[in-house]
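Title: Comparing notes on inverse folding

I've been comparing how different people in this forum approach sequence design from structure. To keep things fair, I'm posting one structure and asking everyone to reply with a full sequence. Here's the target:
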C-alpha cells in the first residue's frame, strides 16, 4: 500500500511540476519581453535626447556656407564637408577664450563654496545643539522661495557700493548666496538620516566635531554631496541672467560672450556653433563622469 501510494503521489506531483515549470518559463518570457521593450524605449528616448547635441556638433564641423545652404544631416551624404576650421577660428577669438576661462573661474569657486559651506551648515542643523536652531533652519528654508529676479537690483546696488559690481567676485558671491539655501536644506535632511548610534560611538572614541564631520559624516554623505555639486555646477555654468547683469566686458562668461557675438541675422554661425557646442559639452562630460554618484545622491533616503 505504501509503495502504491508513493507511486500515486509521484504521478500527481509530476504534472504539477510540469505546470510549475511552464509557468516559470512563461514568466521568464514575459519578463524578457518586458525588459527588452523597456530597453528599446529607453534607447530611443536617449537617441532623441542626443539629437540636438549631435546636430550642433555636426553643424560646428561644417563650413559656414554649407550651414546656410542646408541642414546638418547633409553630412551623412557628404562627409567631405567636415572640417575643424570653425574651431581654429573660435580658438583665435580672444573674447571667446577669455570668457571660457571666466566661466571656469566663476563656476568652480561657486560650486566648491556652496558644497563646503552647505555641508558644514547641514551638519550643524542636523546634529549640533544651539539656541534657535529650528527657527534658523526654517528661515533658511524660507529663502528657497525668494526668486532671483527680486534680488537683482538691490544686490547690484550693494555690490556697486562696496566696489565689486562687474567683477568675478560679485558673480561668485551671488551664486553662492542663492545656492546655499537649497544646499543646506538638502544636506541637512540627508545628514539627519545617519544613525545616531554611529555618531555616539565615534564620540566615545574621542572624535571631536570636526573629526566627526570629516571622518564619519562626509564619507556617508558622499552621494548627496556629489548630487549637490553637479546641480550647482550645471546651474552656474549655464547661467546667463545673473552674468548678463553682474559682469562687464572683462569678466563675462561664455553664455554672455556668445550672445554678444551674434551679429545681424546671426551670420556668424561659424563662431556660434562651435562655441555653443563647447559650452554644452563640458556640463555633459561632468554629468556623465559623475552620473553614478548623482543617481546615488538622488535616490539616497528613498529606501531605508
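Reply #1:
Here's my take.
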Amino acid at each position: 500500500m505504501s509503495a502504491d501510494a508513493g507511486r500515486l503521489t509521484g504521478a500527481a506531483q509530476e504534472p504539477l511540476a510540469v505546470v510549475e515549470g511552464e509557468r516559470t518559463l512563461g514568466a521568464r518570457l514575459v519578463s524578457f519581453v518586458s525588459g527588452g521593450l523597456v530597453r528599446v524605449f529607453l534607447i530611443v528616448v536617449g537617441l532623441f535626447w542626443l539629437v540636438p547635441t549631435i546636430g550642433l556638433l555636426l553643424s560646428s564641423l561644417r563650413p559656414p556656407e554649407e550651414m546656410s545652404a542646408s541642414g546638418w544631416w547633409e553630412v551623412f551624404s557628404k562627409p567631405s564637408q567636415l572640417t575643424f576650421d570653425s574651431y581654429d577660428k573660435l580658438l583665435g577669438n580672444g573674447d571667446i577664450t577669455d570668457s571660457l576661462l571666466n566661466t571656469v573661474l566663476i563656476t568652480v569657486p561657486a560650486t566648491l563654496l556652496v558644497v563646503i559651506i552647505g555641508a558644514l551648515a547641514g551638519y550643524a542643523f542636523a546634529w549640533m545643539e544651539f539656541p534657535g536652531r529650528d527657527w534658523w533652519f526654517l528661515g533658511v528654508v524660507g529663502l528657497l522661495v525668494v526668486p532671483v529676479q527680486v534680488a537683482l537690483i538691490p544686490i547690484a546696488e550693494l555690490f556697486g557700493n562696496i566696489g565689486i559690481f562687474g567683477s568675478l567676485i560679485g558673480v561668485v558671491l551671488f551664486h553662492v548666496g542663492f545656492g546655499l539655501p537649497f544646499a543646506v536644506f538638502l544636506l541637512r535632511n540627508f545628514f539627519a538620516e545617519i544613525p545616531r548610534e554611529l555618531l555616539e560611538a565615534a564620540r566615545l572614541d574621542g572624535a571631536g566635531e570636526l573629526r566627526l564631520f570629516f571622518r564619519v559624516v562626509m564619507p556617508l554623505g558622499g552621494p548627496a554631496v556629489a548630487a549637490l555639486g553637479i546641480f550647482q555646477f550645471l546651474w552656474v555654468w549655464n547661467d546667463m541672467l545673473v552674468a548678463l547683469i553682474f559682469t562687464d566686458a572683462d569678466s563675462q562668461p561664455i553664455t554672455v560672450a556668445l550672445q554678444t557675438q551674434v551679429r545681424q541675422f546671426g551670420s556668424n554661425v561659424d563662431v556660434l556653433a562651435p562655441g555653443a557646442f563647447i559650452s554644452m559639452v563640458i556640463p555633459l562630460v561632468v554629468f556623465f563622469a559623475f552620473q553614478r554618484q548623482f543617481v546615488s545622491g538622488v535616490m539616497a533616503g528613498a529606501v531605508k
